[in-house]
Amino acid sequence: MRLQDTIKTAAKSLLRSKTRTALTMLGIIIGIGSVILLMSIGQSAQDLIIGQVQGAGSNLVFVIPGSNKGSRLAPPAAAQGIIIKTLNKNDLVALKNEASIDLVAPEVRGQARIIYGNNDQAVTFEGTMPDFFPIRNFTIAKGHAFTQSDVDSFNHVIVIGSKLADKLFSRFDPIGKTVRLKNITFTVVGVLDSKGVGPFGIDQDELVLMPVSVAQKQLVGIDYYNSLVIQANANYDIAFAQSRVVSVLRQNHHITNPDKDDFTVQTQADAIDLLGSITSVLKLFLAAIASISLLVGGIGIMNIMLVSVVERTKEIGLRKAVGATDRDVITQFLVEAAILTLFGGIIGIAFGALFTTIIYFAIVNFSTIEWTFALPLSAIALATGVSVLIGLVFGIYPARQAARKSPIEALRYE
């Protein structure tokens, strides 16, 4: 029997039971749609996270207290909430004198409530130095940044994010206004241009930046830094600048054995590679979860095909009586299963793409997240291939059951 005739026969058989065919396809549609949707969300999340790191600045080197103990995927101790006090002003001064480094700024972070009049807002504040602004590509929309003189004199001045300025001051000009953090009075001297969500999910438009001296001594009560952010000199290779940072810190901390490092030095590329590895695992995990529904859909196809074999016993007997071989019968049932899953896969891809688009527009229009639309071709190719494969795999058993029927017994079946 020609394949073309087999396909026509299979199609006619499926169209005779439209409701059952539609219900059988439903499991595959849901499974394929889920794979497309979750893989698209995973890709969009990966693009968002990596884009945030890339947008933090250029030629960046990050110094974090604590070692990751040689594992690329292990976070430094400070990132795990362990208090490490090894980064201090001596490290800052030494790194500023390094030729391969253009700018270096410390970071001291904390959380508090900022109060202006009747407005009260929880914020993340960051103590740093003026070099932090060009390192992180922060520009001032109103007013000005604080100066080194403000740092040295412990001046209570702050620069705030654009969204925070709108929440606290509404239509009023925030420059020169007085606010309170932890019962300490600060004067607003600048408002940042809008930056959106930054690395690690921090909304940079709600940040409060202040002199590091004030943050250390009066708000947090520490004499060390939470991290250092460095901009490498453009005339030097970033890897060389990273190695010089490591050398300077080892010399400052009197470390002779590299295994005893009490700090972690990462470049922007390192951070992107690490985040890429983590998000790729997340994408695979999401795809694996969605694949469970594909398995369920495949089992549903097998069950329906087995019922179909029983219902069409006489038909099978008649075909074999007039000369159809076991191979012809197997081919017909496999083609039916393949058609079910192929068309179910196509519809599932369409629904997956539709819901991906809906989610994209919802996030873009109703949140501040800079979500990107991603519909990876790999997800479409994978979904199509898997859907046909499932049809063949789960169609084999019913097809073999049909081919094994004796023509005489099949014709006598009631």
From TrEMBL:
Annotated TM spans: 21-42, 284-310, 337-363, 375-397
Domain of life from the UniProt record: Bacteria
A Pfam match: FtsX
Keyword Metal-binding: no
Compartments, as annotated in UniProt: Cell membrane
InterPro entries: ABC3_permease_C, MacB_PCD, Macrolide_Exporter_MacB
GO molecular function: transmembrane transporter activity
Membrane association type: Multi-pass membrane protein
ABC3 transporter permease C-terminal domain boundaries: 288-407
Predominant location: membrane
GO cellular component: plasma membrane
Family to which the UniProt record says this protein belongs: Belongs to the ABC-4 integral membrane protein family.
Name assigned to this protein: Multidrug ABC transporter substrate-binding protein
UniProt organism field: Candidatus Yanofskybacteria bacterium RIFCSPHIGHO2_12_FULL_45_19b
